[in-house]
Amino acid sequence: MASLEQLQNLPAVDEILRHDHLAATTQRFPRQQLVEWVRAAVSTCRQEILNGRPYDAAGATQFVVTHILQQDQAEQGRRQQAVINATGILLHTNLGRAPLAAAAVRRMQESAGYANVEMNLQSGKRSQRGARTCRLLSQLTGAEDTVVVNNCAAATMLVLQSIAAGREVIVSRGQLVEIGGGYRLPEVFAASGAILKEVGTTNRTYLRDYENAVTENTAAIIRVHRSNFFLGGFVTEPDLSDLVALGRERGVTVIDDLGSGCMQDLTDLGLHEPTVPASVSAGADLVLFSGDKLFGGPQAGIIVGRSIHTEGLRASPMMRALRVDKVTLAALEATAEIHLSGDGSKELPLLQMLSKDPADICSSCERVRHQLSLPDGVSVEVTECHSQVGGGSVPGSEIPSFCLQISGLNSETLAARLRSGTPAVLGRIQDDRVILDMRTVRDAERDELAAKISSVISQLTTQDA
Length: 465
Ligand SMILES: *Cc1c(COP(=O)(O)O)cnc(C)c1O
Prior knowledge:
It is built from 20 helices and 15 strands. By secondary structure, it is of the alpha/beta class.
């Protein structure tokens, strides 16, 4: 009977929504959402009472309010917002890969309203979508022509479908990759209608394997860059130029799926990544790469190569389904202009971060550390660490860097607190400590980062006390 009285004490929706602690939450969400949350919480509370948990009116209100605040926090964690990337992973796929250049951001903003995405303003006539961007990309890579689609997966799909549907495409068993997020090459083949013809073995594939596999039903040879793993030991693969010679001789198209989209030689930075211009000059008919990996631009799939093939791609009905929007084209055009101007390492955040001197990263760490106010029992040290390229580019890359290492607090709790609220800060956990690699943190983010670390540490230590 006590429970019947308690059930009558369950709070009403409007009473909850007027609660002081929910003032900010009720501003943030539409009433319908709030009402749904309150009803769910009240119903859970009712169930608990029926199960014998004693809630008086105040207790029930507290229960429901806490539940709403948790829903609010969960929603904040899902909402897309800016993140300070202190993971040291430069191309973090979960964080949107390459950060864009300032000029690209400006151009996206300019194009957000009306923009001449398919119009030549001089003639006033309709033009091909992104025609200038495509021309710049051709100039940059040395290719005859360029087609831009939504991402590199779309590029692969479009190319296989329009060049090889119902026919065979030869690929080495050492290159039958899963790129991540369930993108598996054999499945892409199946979806495109092209027939996968595997040759060679996991570690060794010779030119003669390709030669023996070519028949009158062969449409293409595809080479797929091993962008997220590496093979060591006894590994053999023919050079792209040998595949090109074979393709020419037998009338077979040669496709190079590079993925990472590196424009310049990065060996000075200790990275051995094939470049797009090198594949074009080796004679590949079509070279495919992502816009948001080492190219340092927006998400896009860029196909460069010979016009006899690109014209077919452009005419494909799939093209309409895979095309990119005006804002992406604006960012891509700006990024291509930066590459062409030769200022990439100065103006593209990705290349800037990649070429940061570890000594400068170390002093960046020190600057942040000096701004921190730390309670007893918590320490922050500056130590060496390794950054990674990530995002399916340059597998196994370990770039010397420096980080802030926070000890004295539960690492999972600390990492979760750093991620919540604004700015959201993402670090790594290593040996049960949170580390914040400063290679991927912009100078302009340092003060915000320091303030966030101080406030989170102070919250956690005063709660403990
Ligand atoms: C990353 C990658 C892809 C997929 O690129 P998205 O732009 O993510 O679709 C395809 N092929 C290779 C070799 C890659 O590295």
